[in-house]
Amino acid sequence: MTRIFFATLVALVFGISDAAVCSEEQNKPKTAPPSGKAIYQKNCSVCHSLKPPPKMAPPIVGMAAHYRDAFTDKDAAITHMVQFMQAPDSSKSKLEPQAIARFGLMPVIPLSEKELRTVSEWLWNQYDPSFALPKRCN
Questions:
Q1: What is the mean pLDDT of residues 92-121?
Q2: 77 within domain boundaries
Q3: Position 116 in a domain
C-alpha cells in the first residue's frame, strides 16, 4: 500500500511539474521577426533618409523609384536587392552612375538573407508615384 501511495505521489508531482513547464512555455511571449521598417531604422537609416534631402546615401523613395523603373516583377527586384546588399557592385547598381559617384558604394550589410529580403520588400513598398526622380544626382 505504501508503495502504491508513493508511486502515485511521485507521478502526481512529475505530472504537475510537467504541466507547469508546458504552461510557462505557452505563456512566453512569442517575438515576431523584425519588420522591414524596423530593420531599416536599426541598420539603414544612419545613411539612408526616407525622403530627400539625402544623408550619406540616396533616399529610400528614390531607390524605390529606380527599382520600380528597372523591374516589373517584385520578386526579381527583391532578389536583386538582396544580392546587391550581399556584394555591392557598381556594375549591378540600378541607380544612376552619378549617385555612385556622389555617395560611393554601400558596404556589405551584415544581415541574414531573411532580414535582407524583409527590408528589400519594405523598400519596394516605399515607392511613391508622386516622387519625381531628379534629372541628375548632383
A1: 96
A2: yes
A3: yes
CB atoms within 10 A of CB 104: 12
Q: Within a domain: residue 109?
A: yes
DSSP 136: S
Q: Quick check: 67 pLDDT over 80? A: yes
Domain contains 86:
yes
What domain range is 106 assigned to? Answer: 35-124
Q: Give the span between the Cα atoms of 81 and 3, in whole angstroms.
A: 68
Q: What is the dihedral of CA 58, 61, 44, 111, to 10 degrees?
A: -110
Q: What pTM does this model have? A: 0.75
Lowest mean pLDDT among 24-33, 53-62, 107-116: 24-33
Helix axes 74-86, 60-70, angle to 10 degrees: 120
- Helices 113-124 and 60-70, axial angle in degrees (round to 10): 90
Q: What is the CATH number of the domain that holds 56?
A: 1.10.760
